[in-house]
Specification:
Strand content: under 5%
Distance between the termini: 55 Å
Largest sheet: none
Radius of gyration: 21 Å
Oligomer: single chain
Structural class: mainly alpha
Number of domains: 2
Length: 154
């Protein structure tokens, strides 16, 4: 059984390693596909870094999230993986992690769908997401203070 100190060390080290691997994956991927860095696009070392880090960051991120959920001080639940800034311990950092998890999910899903959707379908999806986002933010702004107050009945 792992001690709380070991859980803390594993959670932080895998989080840091996942972040470094993801940054290296994105930067090396940009170097391979960018016209501005064409001299790097044929470099086997950059290709090897990209291939390794693309595979490495996901298991590190999964171990990071699982160990944070096991951490007795963080007390992260499944809801905290979806709704940012709810947890009391380190709410800003864990909230940013939640948003990062959601952004990574969007990037992975859109990458997977890239070859399956036409240009017209992408434009339609973008319009639907924009309308849904505006509707959610407008509904939050319309809530009246009177509705949120509790009235005691004598």
């Amino acid at each position: 059984m792992l001690t709380t100190d070991q859980i803390w060390i594993i959670a932080r080290s895998t989080g840091t390693a996942a972040l470094v691997a993801l940054v290296l994956s994105v930067l090396s991927g940009m170097a391979l596909r960018s016209g501005a860095l064409s001299w790097l696009s044929h470099n086997r070392g950059v290709r090897a870094v990209h291939d390794l880090t693309s595979v490495l960051w996901l298991p590190l991120a999964v171990v990071h999230v699982v160990t944070l959920m096991l951490d007795p001080y963080a007390k992260i639940g499944f809801v905290d993986l979806v709704v940012p800034f709810l947890v009391s311990y380190g709410s800003f950092a864990i909230g940013l992690g939640t948003i990062s998890l959601q952004l990574v999910a969007v990037v992975l899903i859109s990458t997977w769908l890239r070859s399956r959707l036409t240009q017209r379908a992408w434009l339609t999806a973008a319009v639907l997401v924009t309308v849904a986002f505006r509707r959610l933010t407008a509904a939050r702004g319309r809530q009246s203070p009177a509705r949120s107050k509790t009235v005691a009945i004598p």
